[in-house]
Amino acid sequence: MDEMKATSDDPAAAPLRKIIHVDMDAFFASVEQRDHPELRGKPVAVGGSARRGVVAAASYEARKFGVKSAMPSVTAARRCPDLIFVKHRFDVYREVSQQIRAIFHQHTDLVEPLSLDEAYLDVTEDKQGIGSATLIAESIRASIREETQLTASAGVSYNKFIAKIASDQNKPDGLCVIRPEQGPDFVASLPVRRFHGVGPRTAEKMARLGIETGADLRARPREWMQEHFGKFANYLYGAARGIDHRPVQPNRIRKSIGGERTYGEDIIADDAMREALNHIVDIVWERIEKNEARGRTVTLKVKYADFHQITRAHSLDRWVEGKAEFAEIGHVLLEALLPVEQGVRLLGLTLSALDLGGDEEADDDVPVKPEQQSFGFL
């Protein structure tokens, strides 16, 4: 996603919070290695095969060879000749995800899942009265290891933006704490491509404008940002200063439910696109079931290698009956676009016209400046 919504940057607009972002380490692949000891220590790809399809997840052993999620399986096999492909088991991943979320809820009801393997937690007021977000994060990671035999990494900070970045700092099986007084300098040291919301296209534009780091971005006035980035400018202005007042939202109400994947290498083969769409169907339908949602309209989103983007939609005069029909409509929309003359860099699928109200993107409000003070994380 290359854009986020903007809000005021009034320093008094929101209170200081204790936020944890928990991200499981190579989740799908780690579950497979846990359940199949013969796979431990070996390069594993979940999804696809050596001849076709798309990698859904890769173990750390495979990542050393440059194998990553959303990569065409043929490319992955070429980079890592010893790569072991295994079929995905989303029912198992969902069960483990529920175990992990139960651990989160032992500490707070303010849990905002982003996917099966990551979530934000607001522990400003924690149920167990521990008081320290760092100690809570350590307790959560220990409980996950004990109950699931899996590892998780966590970022602890005063807002969602920095906590999410921090959770990736010491992967795998790591913890990173960024206190309020450290936030601006931490952000200044980061490559802008690590900013949530800054996709490859925006990063390339920034590079052409001489912006490589958060410090480069912070040096530019808001007016300059507005000139070059439009409505994205307010978000960038705040992010470059470690600002983010978005609350953790455990019960976001949606007008639509969907998912999309941007691929590291463009997909050209028809079968690879069909396989990629199947993976998206699995992910999106899990979200639909979780929200107990019903909808009438299925929308396919395709972004080509030249960044030209199109959407195709089909609406029913009744609710989509189930996952099979949801997938069928998505594939009908895709087949109408095949074959493609150029590669596809993004595929997405959405169910809308729901019997729910609200805004799916409610978590993308932009940041406002936090108070700079000691916060008692330790």
Q: In terms of topology, how is this protein built?
A:
Layout: E1 19-24, H1 27-35, E2 44-46, E3 57-58, H2 60-63, H3 73-79, E4 84-86, H4 90-105, E5 111-115, E6 118-122, H5 133-148, E7 152-157, H6 160-166, E8 175-177, H7 183-188, H8 200-208, H9 214-218, H10 222-229, H11 233-239, E9 257-267, H12 270-290, E10 297-304, E11 309-315, H13 323-335, E12 344-352
Parallel strand pairs: 2-4, 7-8
Antiparallel strand pairs: 1-6, 1-7, 2-3, 5-6, 9-12, 10-11, 10-12
Helix pairs in contact: 4-5, 10-11, 12-13
Structure description:
The structure is a single chain. Among the domains are: 63 residues, MutS, DNA mismatch repair protein, domain I (3-Layer(aba) Sandwich); 71 residues, DNA polymerase, domain 1 (Orthogonal Bundle), CATH 1.10.150.20; 106 residues, Dna Ligase, domain 1. It is of the alpha+beta class. The strands form three sheets. Strands 5-6-1-7-8 form a five-stranded mixed β-sheet. It has a four-stranded antiparallel β-sheet with strand order 9-12-10-11. The chain is built from 13 helices and twelve strands. It is globular. A hairpin with a 4-residue loop joins strand 10 and strand 11.
Provide tags for this entry:
MutS, DNA mismatch repair protein, domain I, single chain, five-stranded mixed sheet, DNA damage, 13 helices, alpha+beta, DNA polymerase, domain 1, disordered C terminus, Dna Ligase, domain 1, disordered N terminus, 378 residues
